[in-house]
């Protein structure tokens, strides 16, 4: 039985990475959006739009990477509604984000009807990295995945670098901490906010598309099942820093993979209680994270949720 | 080219015109969306209208939907006024339904109808209030983000309901379906009008709206809430106890959502099951916002969105137009309303000339 336990652990952890990747994209995106001072609660909506567009494109064209790109783009376009309302029109960001989520759920229910219960013939193919995948234990978990997972690894590193080591990152953080001062320094506050809100939308769309193109290759109404809200919670857990996003996403992924595995093995624990666990864990995480953020005085972006109005005297 | 200048006070005609225009534009967007799926939008809207207001019976069904929307939204108005974002009415509604079901299942034989119904109302309110108290206390004492906390609690409430329905509370004689037994007549809210499903909850809703309106306009508590909502720092300097106000307002808001859940299962469904329409908790957010956070206006708006929902439920069956059209129209209305708010807050100049 020993080798079986080992094999199950590997399978579980590989599933953890996959499940975590669905969240990793949106978390990273929202980190940048919030760093610029814009709170976008529309992730759930943008994710599900990305999920449907990705699924529909793959279903109709069979081009899986093209489908991923289209899902991503759809999420990005949806974010522009929120950007326009909260940046240009200075509307209430909380309500606008919620409206975007309601919009996404409504529009995908409306146009997704003809895809309900259809299945994709092919999911995103596994690409085994020679050499690295031979590393004992970690190899099969981290490097027997697909291009999108590898993309997410690279993304964590690149976004960390952009945020802390480049001029664009400095400008972004300046806008989020003190928009007026950033403006005085010659940074175009509106442009920065538009750009990173759009980026957040792209990433949410990517997460949604990864869900339907890999983890759940079929279409169901409300298929994102609250992952967008979890992502927003994990942004706080990540303290607005991409490498920590990895931890949060994989923690959620682990509990999700574990409860799923337990359910398919036919445990006596009621399935409703198992399905609840990822949300319960996130709920505990958000409390712990908030207390940590407060104790360590880690910066919540100071201008988060506050519209910037240049002309005001 | 475009310039904005802050307004001192909001002219009345804008306060009325902007919501109306937002509704029209939202409906227009919904129509365009319908057109893309090769259905004539005019036919759809006509069917929605007839399905909502076309006969005495469908009219009464519109009111049936408006009842929970009104109960929940007036509670939300109270907390939204203080910039506290309770997105958890969904979960509070479920908890209200669960708590009152305990009495419906266990005390129907031992209590008289008025006593039992009163106990169920109280249980529903307590259930919703307790579920709202968790995020309220977390916010008040530890500054935990209430949007996230209330949303996650929604999922926890939903799975708690599923646990009960697939486990201890499933009626052994329901052929495996996740349903409790049908409530005894003792545990059913009386109907207000015969041959319809309109129940006593309508009176609850109207009373709640009036009380909330009075609280906000006429009491010290309401005044403090408004001050906190306008400027938390000022409120703190003025010596207002913010934590106490958050908790009190959330208990009221959650209690009303719980009462809505109770009214729905005791007045309409007559049993506990998984499909108890907690989505009203999200729609009520739109009601609250569309009514400009005015509890009396919320009565009209609940009725309007109730009609949209009731009408759309009809065409979902008759014309196979997916129910998602409701969310699409509602969110579009919200977008226009939020965007339009800039006109109430600012004067708009184009190349130096005042437009509005």
From TrEMBL, chain A:
Entry GO CC: plasma membrane
Keyword line: Cell membrane, Membrane, Transmembrane, Transmembrane helix
Residue spans crossing the bilayer: 6-25, 37-58, 64-87, 94-112, 147-164, 194-212, 244-262, 274-293
Annotated InterPro entries: ABC_transp_permease (IPR001851)
Topology relative to the membrane: Multi-pass membrane protein
Compartments in which it is found: Cell membrane
Name of protein: ABC transporter permease
